[in-house]
Amino acid sequence: MWVKLENVVVANAFWITERANPYFVLQRRLGHGTKGFSSLLVGTIDSVFDTKPLPFRILHQISNSDTTYIIAASSSFAEILKDWEYIENHLMPTLTNFENDADVTDFIKYVISSVSKFIKLFSMPEEEKLVNYYYCSYFKGSFPRQGWLCISINHLCFYSNIFGNEIKIITKWIDVKDFFLHQKHHLEIDDPRFFPNSIRVITRTKKYLFSMFLRAVEVYSLMEQLANLAMKSLISDEKQHLLTIDNEQNNKPKYSCGASKKIEIT
């Protein structure tokens, strides 16, 4: 769960490092999940000072610097590990392009703030991960509406608010039509003669046209990747469901059609 960036004075007191890279550290509270003196000591200290922090957290820290920020916290290792994987897959490749540490920290603050706003704006669950967002226009009828296209792991969203006229679009990747079924790609780059740098998204019930991207090919590639990933996950879940039903049927007791039961009359 992402949290508002806060400065941590003592980063390693009563914490154990589980993962680390040049800009981030994943830590576990000392004594959590174990029994013994360390667990009792830390538990007592937390009770006395009424702190009781969540047992897992991710810190942003820079080498040769005493400044450290907490950016995520969770009660479970599985949940915090998802945040860590998001950092490894989506933040780290970008951070390596910055020339100084100050720009790295500013970018991280901006990204975490954007993720929090995305979750609040579109009423998403805390575990939903924002992959990227792009400034573009949505064509409602023949009029473009400028706004932000937000691409997350499971959703495609768009938001625009011009002079109080609000437009909010939320669609799941699994609702984007599969191109194999319809004999064409479900995400199509439109003819640039009509809508330069545009992408049309076709769902089960609606069609959306987004245009005026600065990097339309990049957006299209990301959309297609996430849509295909969602479809593969859906097919895998359906196969697992059918396999479970088949196993339940095979485990049911079988009776022979010709068998008869002897009834005794007393």
From TrEMBL:
Domain GRAM: 116-183
Gene3D superfamilies assigned to the protein according to its UniProt record, in alphabetical order: Pleckstrin-homology domain (PH domain)/Phosphotyrosine-binding domain (PTB)
Annotated InterPro entries: GRAM, PH-like_dom_sf
Family matches, as SMART domains: GRAM
Protein name: TBC1 domain member 8B, variant 4
Source organism of the structure: Dermatophagoides farinae (American house dust mite)
Lineage summary: Eukaryota, Metazoa, Ecdysozoa, Arthropoda, Chelicerata
